Amino acid sequence: MLSFGKSTTPAHRRYVIRIMAFTLPYVAICVAMMTTDAFDDLMGKPAAWLLAAAVSAPVIGQIWAVLSLMRESDEFVRGVMAKQFIVAAGLTLAIATFWGFGESFAGAPHMQTWLVLPLFWGMLGIVAPFIRSSR
Amino acid sequence: MKNRLKLLRVERGWTQEQLGQALGVSRQAVIALETERHDPSLDLAYRIAAVFDRPVEEIFENPHA
User: Fold this and answer.
1) CATH number of B5-54: 3.40.50.1010, 2.40.70.10, 3.10.20.90, 1.10.260.40?
2) Residue of B nearest to A133 (CA)
3) ipTM field
4) Is the overall model pTM greater than 0.90, yes or no?
């Protein structure tokens, strides 16, 4: 993402707060699922779908936060963000496709599909510093 | 796009932040314009022209001329 240093705008500050607000519940539920047996009773029951919905809802919020930042920013920031997200999404799709075919045909170990979200944000973190032009 | 934005800004003694505020854009956008990492929209180009009270062609070099 664009740097949040001295030139941080009110829109950027709102974005950081919104992203944190949506990411923290996601991380909290993920960590709870992985480190405790609090949700083990739900396994195989319809309530497990509610848990899946609860953990994925913040992702919708993250996208809303990104779109809000783009709406509240100037044309340069909007253009750079769009490029960064397109490249990050493209790399994520390429890696997921590669791994999926690897699983199907090359015996690669199974990757949980929910990993695609952290993979996307990781890709965004990697590509963002290299995409600084709107052209 | 080649331009004289930095020259005009410095002539007036403005900071990038001040120019950004006058144009309604971020300092990042001003930096990107000055370093030719952003081609402004027609709307922004006219806003820049209005702020400096110059025709657009005096600020931005027409790459197609």
Assistant:
1) 1.10.260.40
2) B37
3) 0.91
4) no
